[in-house]
Write a structure and sequence with these properties.
The chain is mostly helical. The protein has a two-stranded antiparallel sheet. Strands 2-3 form a two-stranded antiparallel ribbon. The radius of gyration is 19 Å and the shape is globular. It has 14 helices and 4 strands. α4 packs antiparallel against α6 and α5 packs across α7.
């Protein structure tokens, strides 16, 4: 985790009242900075609220304790609250009332919040992806809306800005998939394209039995290179955007690149190696953000 004095951690217990129930209080490690002190003070609280919305909905979808029908009901409640905001009607909960005020004040496209919900609901029913095209469509809903929301907060919504942001967010999502292969498998999910697994001679038994062989190594090398390239494709965003937002995005890109280096160094052995950001990585990321292009 990033050092406390540099990045404000949003890994706290949340107790959001949802129609008589509470979202599960879960602590989360985050590889990438969410609300850095680099950002203007007046935007940190809005970003925290947006994060809380996404994280709470994700917690529901990822819970191993809640029944599937209950998860669907809770996410549907989120959707109904968003619909009230969309129709200028008062939401039932304080949290969504605050979110609605935030959306109105900053003129945020509410469709982006619906897209996030689409992704969380998709996790309840779709556990495998036939090819990267399908997986990329999932990233378009699960990750890219976050970057677009942040750009709208800062007022940078040129088509190029959004394209570069999508590339960065897609990469970060893929990187998280690669780090969390075993954890996702325990939830019954595999976020590796099925056709690519087959082409590299990898089966689900590799994950189940934590088999690290040449087939797995080659598959992971391919996945890591793709994630790395997506980051590079989006890097122009921090070169174009001025001031604090540019610095923030640069630190996020450098963080992603640091994790891809760690994944490459272990040759994709996610079964035996922890690839999460540590204090030593943080120093490297800080230096790269300050001194490197």
């Amino acid at each position: 985790m990033f050092e406390r004095e540099i990045f404000r951690s949003l890994n706290y217990h949340r107790h959001v009242l949802l129609n008589g129930y509470r979202a599960l209080p879960v602590d989360h490690y985050e590889n990438f900075p969410i609300a850095s002190i680099v950002l203007p003070k007046h935007l940190r609280a809005p970003i925290e609220t947006i994060y809380n919305f996404a994280r709470s909905a994700d917690d529901i979808a990822d819970s191993g304790e809640l029944p599937a029908t209950f998860k669907q009901e809770r996410l549907e409640f989120f959707r109904e609250e968003l619909k009230k905001i969309q129709c200028n009607q008062p939401p039932l909960t304080t949290f969504f009332s605050e979110l609605g005020t935030l959306i109105a004040q900053h003129n945020l496209p509410i469709t982006l919040f619906f897209q996030l919900l689409d992704a969380f609901e998709q996790d309840l029913t779709i556990k495998r992806y036939e090819n990267f095209t399908q997986l990329k469509l999932y990233c378009d809903r699960s990750a890219n809306p976050i970057g677009r929301i942040l750009l709208h907060l800062f007022g940078y919504t040129h088509d190029d800005h959004l394209k570069w942001s999508d590339s960065i967010c897609t990469s970060l999502q893929i990187i998280n998939f690669l780090q969390d292969i075993s954890e996702d498998y325990e939830l019954g999910r595999i976020y590796l394209p099925q056709d690519e697994m087959i082409s590299f001679g990898v089966t689900e038994d590799h994950i189940k039995n934590e088999v690290f062989d040449l087939s797995w190594l080659n598959l992971m090398e391919f996945q890591i290179k793709r994630a790395h390239q997506y980051l590079l494709d989006g890097a122009e965003l921090y070169e174009i955007l001025p001031g604090r937002i540019g610095i923030e995005i640069k630190s996020i890109v450098k963080s992603g690149l640091q994790v891809t280096r760690k994944l490459s160094a272990s040759r994709g052995n996610v079964f035996a190696t922890n690839h999460k950001i540590n204090s030593f990585d943080f120093v490297s990321i800080l230096l790269q953000t300050v001194f490197h292009k």
